[in-house]
């Protein structure tokens, strides 16, 4: 049985639930009410030690002092999802891309845009893997598992939207 470590961190977008594997690699970051979000399960062990770097970097991000997270991740997605998530990691702070652009970055066809959207929606690492930077082809704020209000707050923090 694998040990899951967890902690909670307060943030401007609500409490964040962070989980890590036994090595301390971040496995998820979710918010209350998140579609496909995590909740603390029996057998998990609360331990703040492995999350110090994540807590420091999140605090700096929300203070407007950090643009790129440097954390070790351990996610468990299909090869397709991992490619989509890697493409998300390349979207810079303060920028947005469309679902179609993510599909093109991974070499997927235009017909795969819906599948790309599904992979983005299944991103287990909100905030640190910037799925909030993906918008609709017409510039609309669509599809954020953490809720559109949080997406708008994150994009406002990054200077994409005016507050």
Automatic annotation (TrEMBL):
UniProt entry tagged with the keyword Transferase: yes
UniProt lineage: Bacteria, Bacillati, Actinomycetota, Actinomycetes, Kitasatosporales
Pfam families: DNA_binding_1, Methyltransf_1N
Domain named Methylated-DNA-[protein]-cysteine S-methyltransferase DNA binding: residues: 79-160
Species per Swiss-Prot/TrEMBL record: Streptomyces cylindrosporus
Recorded catalytic activity of this chain's protein: a 4-O-methyl-thymidine in DNA + L-cysteinyl-[protein] = a thymidine in DNA + S-methyl-L-cysteinyl-[protein]; a 6-O-methyl-2'-deoxyguanosine in DNA + L-cysteinyl-[protein] = S-methyl-L-cysteinyl-[protein] + a 2'-deoxyguanosine in DNA
Known function: Involved in the cellular defense against the biological effects of O6-methylguanine (O6-MeG) and O4-methylthymine (O4-MeT) in DNA. Repairs the methylated nucleobase in DNA by stoichiometrically transferring the methyl group to a cysteine residue in the enzyme. This is a suicide reaction: the enzyme is irreversibly inactivated.
InterPro entries: MethylDNA_cys_MeTrfase_DNA-bd (IPR014048), MethylDNA_cys_MeTrfase_DNAb (IPR036217), MethylG_MeTrfase_N (IPR008332), MGMT (IPR023546), MGMT_N_sf (IPR036631), WH-like_DNA-bd_sf (IPR036388)
Domain Methylguanine DNA methyltransferase ribonuclease-like residues, every copy: 6-74
Keyword DNA damage: yes
UniProt name for this protein: Methylated-DNA--protein-cysteine methyltransferase
UniProt-annotated catalytic positions: 131 (nucleophile)
NCBIfam families: ogt (TIGR00589)
HAMAP family found in the cross-reference section: OGT
């Amino acid at each position: 049985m694998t040990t899951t470590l967890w902690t909670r961190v307060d943030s401007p977008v609500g409490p964040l639930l962070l989980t890590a594997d036994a090595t301390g690699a971040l496995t998820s970051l979710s918010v209350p009410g998140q579609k496909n979000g995590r909740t603390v399960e029996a057998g998990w062990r609360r331990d703040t030690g492995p999350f110090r770097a994540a807590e420091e970097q999140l605090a700096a991000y929300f203070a407007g002092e950090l643009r790129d997270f440097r954390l070790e991740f351990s996610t468990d997605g299909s090869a397709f999802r991992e490619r989509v998530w890697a493409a998300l990691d390349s979207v810079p702070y303060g920028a947005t891309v469309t679902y179609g652009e993510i599909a093109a970055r991974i070499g997927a066809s235009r017909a795969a845009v819906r599948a790309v959207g599904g992979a983005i929606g299944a991103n287990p690492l909100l905030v640190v893997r910037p799925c909030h930077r993906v918008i609709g082809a017409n510039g609309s704020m669509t599809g954020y598992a953490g809720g559109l209000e949080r997406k708008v707050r994150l994009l406002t923090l990054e200077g994409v939207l005016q507050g």
